[in-house]
Amino acid sequence: MPEVICSHCRKKLHPPARLAGRKVMCPRCEAVLAVPLSSDSDEEIPSNLPAETGPEEPPLPASARIGIAALVLGCISVLILCLPVVGYASIGLSGIGVPVGLWGLLRARMEGNGMLCRSLTGVVGDFGTRARDYPLAGTVACLLALTLALLPLLMRGSPP
User: Fold this and answer.
1) Residue (of 56, 3, 1, 67) closest to 31 by Cα position
2) Are 129 and 116 within 8 A, CB to CB?
3) How many CB atoms lie within 10 A of CB 133?
4) CA 88 to chain CA centroid, nearest Å
5) Mapping DSSP to helix (H, G, I), strand (E, B) and coil, where does residue 75 land?
6) Is the dihedral of CA 97, 99, 100, 105 positive or negative?
7) In tens digits, what is the pLDDT along the chain, a chain of 160 residues?
8) Residue 60: C-alpha distances to residues 31, 83, 106 (Å)
C-alpha cells in the first residue's frame, strides 16, 4: 500500500494499491494528489488506464460547490415564482438556499480567500475566480427570490 503525504495540509494518506498511478483527493483539504507507482508491488498495474492528456483542472473547493447549489436554488425559485399554485414552493426553495449560501460563505472564509483557477473567469470581470464568489451570488439570488415571493403577501396586508 503506497503512502502519500499531502503537500497542502501534510496529512498522510494510505490509498489502496489499485490506485497506483492515479490521482486521489485529500479528504482534509481536498487537494488533488498523484499516487506513486510502487516498485515493490508484485501486482500488475492495469494497462487500460487513460492516457494523460495534459494538466487537469483541480476540482472546485467545497465552498464554491455549496455556493453553486445555493445559486441553482435561487434561480429555480425565481423561475417558478410566476407559476400559479407551484409558485409558493419558491418561498421554501429560496428559504433553504439562503442558509446554504451563507454556509458556503462561512466555509469560504474558513478555507481562506484563495483564488480559483483563472480558466474559471466568468462573464463579468473576475467573477468566479475567488472561492467566495459563488456562495455570495447564491445568497443574493435566494434573497432576491425570497423577497419577490413574499412581496405579494406583504402588500396584501397594507392599507390602500
Assistant:
1) 56
2) yes
3) 21
4) 27
5) helix
6) positive
7) 677 888 778 788 888 877 788 888 887 887 888 888 765 545 554 555 555 555 566 677 888 888 889 999 999 998 998 888 888 888 899 999 999 989 988 888 887 755 544 444 444 556 666 777 888 889 999 999 999 888 887 887 666 6
8) 10, 34, 16
Cell reading at 158: 397594507
Residue labelled with grid coordinates 423561475:
79
How is residue 59 annotated by DSSP?
P
Which residues does 107 contact at the CB level (< 8 Å), separation at least 6? 62, 63, 66, 135
- Among residues 49, 24, 44, the alpha carbon closest in space to that of 34 is found at 24
Rounded CA-CA distance 43/16 in Å is 12
How many other β-carbons are positioned within 10 Å of the β-carbon of residue 24? 16
* Residue 65 grid coordinates: 460547490
